[in-house]
Structure formats: structure tokens, C-alpha cells
Amino acid sequence: MSEPVIHDAGATHDDPTHLQDAAEDATALSAAAADTTAAAVGMSSAASLPVVGGDLRSIAADRGPLAMAATGIGRDYRIGRGVILHAVRDVSFGLYKGAVVALVGESGSGKSTVARLLAGQERPSAGTIALDGNVIDVRSNRHFRKYKSQVQLVFQDPFSSLNPTHTVGYHLSRPVRLHQPDVKNVDGAVTALLEQVRLVPADQFVTKYPYELSGGQRQRVAFARALAAQPTVLLADEPVSMLDVSIRLEMLNLLDDLRSRLHLALLYITHDIASARYFADEVLVMYGGRIVERGPAEDVTQQPAHPYTQLLIASAPDPDKLGSVLKTSTAAAGSVAARTTAANTGGPAAVGCPFAPRCPLAIDKCRTDDPALELLTPTRAAACWRLDVAAGAS
């Protein structure tokens, strides 16, 4: 077995202002790349994932074929002498054409790190990522542009991800030229992209600069730029969290329409489990760099099995509280601020369940042994030593 890759936490942090431009132009990248090989990932098209007690089937597989699969991926950072931060640990899931998979968790849970790994902007320390059944690896610049034409990442902040010195037309024409070299009428392609994200009439937006647009309009431009590459996989990292509440539903409806019409495999990353319930096919709940619960969106939000999922639902700003609410007092859970760093750092703090310091149901075993995902139904799994007690408290 090869030695795991450990990265310096301060060595490579991409500036979001220029990150998309760099991703679209392989010559601007010095190290990041993706080389597609013929080796198949250890996941079938039916998306069976190994868990304790059997194989878990993703409900999202009912929508379409497997487009991208992550198997046991991890990401470690060296944050000091002899101190390793395990930002992502043993994460496995699949993305399917025409389906929405939501990755839910608090800030610091590792969601955005997973997105960067899938986008090829960071290398995993462990595990594999496969696109259309072929394992990808960040090695050479030669294949990075081809990979980015299939996998696109939309960032949280639409203002910082767009270059303020360039017009909307420039932001869209550049990826069209890079990823669609056979297109003769670039202006026509730009107009079609703007109409696709409902920025009409298109000619009124082509010459505008990002600062002349509203937050929702800027995010629509970001969506259009991602679609210019004609991807099969779209990774949306908190795409509506910085927008006004009044237009969030409108943006999610747009994403859902694009997912349906273009048959995209969509990863929706959010801290809002309420929106995940209504928008996603499958929900993956992440804490401490690991998936602690997963299953069909309606099942996970209506009958949460893991105490952390119950805590998320109890604090969700949803009128019907998404169904069940944790009846056990959450006072013992401690501060809402995540203690992820301590739980994920190499050393004594990494022993046991990462949620144990906040869990109102924790016992001694929770603090010494880390639970694995346990199969609850053919499509649901959770990682908790006290699932029987947690089920009674929900």
C-alpha cells in the first residue's frame, strides 16, 4: 500500500477570484491536472457501497447511470510539527446523471474540501475518484482541460468568483472557445447560455460588468460559465447561501431545471438541511470529515437516525421542523460552533466518534471507538453506537 499523501495546510490555497479562470485554462496551472486512466473504480453502476452488514444502494441511482464515484477518499493537512488535520476521512458516494445528491453539514465539516477533490483542484491523500468508470489522478496538465469540460464547480460567492475587470460576455466566451473549439458563432453560443439561465434579453447582459449585476444575476452568470464547458457533472458549493432569502428558491428551481433538461449529475453542498429535503434525491450528512448518515432525502429528514442529523433538523428554520425533532435536551450538546479541528486532529483527540464531545447521548464507548456506517435499510446507513437510543429520541 502506498504512503498516504499529506499536504501542508498553507501551501496551496486557491484565490476564488481567479480559481475558475485557472480551471478553464490548463496553461495557467502549474501542478493541478487530471489524467484519466483505464482503471475502473471499485464501484458498480448500481452504486453499491461497502458498509458494515451489507451493501448500501443509492436512491439517486434510480435517476440515471453512474457519472462520478468517490471511494474511500481522504484529505490530510499538516498543520504543525507532528500534527495532522484529517479534513476528509474515508468518504464514499456516487453521483448519477439526472440526480441531485446533497452533502449537508456545518462549516468546517469537510464539504468544500470534498468538492475541491472531485473538481480535481486538490489531490486526495487516500482513496480514488472515478469519472465514467475511469479513475482520475491529478498528474499532468495535458488532460486537465478535458477533465474540466466534464466536471465543473460553482462557487459560493458569485462576486469573488467573477473577475470584476471583465464583462459577462468575456466570462462566457472564454470557456466556449476553450471547451467548444468547433463552435463558429461564439456570440450566438453566449446568447444561448444567458437564455439558458434566464438572463433575458441576453444582449442587455453581455456588456455588463459583475458589479453592475445583482447577487442572483451574478450567480446565474456563474452557472452559465460552468455550462459553457458542457459538463456531465456539476458541483455546486453553497450556491444560494449568499443570496437573499427571497430568491433562493428561484435559484434552486433554476438548478433543478438545468439538472433535468441537461441530465446533469449534481452535487449540492449546503448547511441547510431544509433545502436539501426539498431539492435532493439523496442526502449525505457530514461531520468531522466523515459521512455520519445517508439515505433518501425524505427519509433522512423525516426520521433522522444519527444524533447530529437530529440536531441539524431541530435547528432548521423550517415551519414544520421537517417532521421529527430531537426530544432529548440539546443543552448537553454544547456550543453550536463545531469542534471539528480537535476531533479531526491526529493524536488522542482523534480517538472515538468525532461527534462525541457534542452528543447528548454519548457514552464511554463513543469516546474511545469510532463507529462505522451501519446498514439500516437497503438505501440508508448511519454511523453511531447508540442508534437504538437515538431512534427512540427522534
Brief sketch in words of this structure:
It contains 13 helices and 16 strands. It has helices spanning 16-24, 111-118, 144-148, 168-179, 186-196, 215-227, 245-262, 273-279, 297-302, 307-314, 340-344, 364-368, 387-393; strands at 6-8, 35-36, 48-51, 54-57, 66-80, 83-96, 100-104, 126-131, 134-137, 151-154, 233-237, 265-270, 282-287, 290-296, 374-377, 380-382.
Explain this structure.
The chain has 394 residues and is α/β, with parallel strands linked by helices. The protein has a domain at 6-150 and 229-293: Rossmann fold, CATH 3.40.50.300. Helix content is 29%, strand content 23%. The chain has 13 helices and 16 strands. The protein has helices spanning 16-24, 111-118, 144-148, 168-179, 186-196, 215-227, 245-262, 273-279, 297-302, 307-314, 340-344, 364-368, 387-393, and strands spanning 6-8, 35-36, 48-51, 54-57, 66-80, 83-96, 100-104, 126-131, 134-137, 151-154, 233-237, 265-270, 282-287, 290-296, 374-377, 380-382. The strands form three sheets. Strands 10-11-12-7-13-14-16-15 form an eight-stranded mixed sheet, with helices on both faces. A hairpin with a 2-residue loop joins β3 (48-51) and β4. α4 (168-179) packs across α5 (186-196) and α4 runs parallel beside α6. It is globular. Residues 8-47, 321-343 and 345-349 have low confidence and may be disordered.
